[in-house]
Amino acid sequence: MAKVAAISNPNNLPLIHDCWFNLDEVNFDAFTGVLEVPFMRPILERSRTVKRIFLKRVQVPLVRCVLRMRYVECLKLEDTKCVGSYDFDEMRYDSAAQKIVVDTGVLLRFEVKFEVK
Hints:
Elements: E1 20-22, E2 27-29, E3 34-42, E4 48-51, E5 56-59, E6 62-69, E7 72-78, E8 85-94, E9 99-104, E10 109-114
Antiparallel strand pairs: 1-8, 2-3, 3-6, 4-5, 7-10, 8-9, 9-10
């Protein structure tokens, strides 16, 4: 069964900090106003060390998650570096502009504007 984490404060998103997503997998349905961003989240508590003769590796399992935003009016994505894979660094909510700005480790313009209800 899938677990759902509801986040009501976009300024507090520790669950996805440093998680990676592919820009090609971002899906915005303008008709329904739903934005989905699939990403991979490490499960650090299940990591394990694998020892070889001269090497030691840490294996960290990943779980595929989806960040879903509703009531999206407009999405701006400008991939100037053309990297393709990005990490979530910070999300800031601008209540006056009704938008979320997503900061990533690599330069990417990622803005989500919401409908005013």
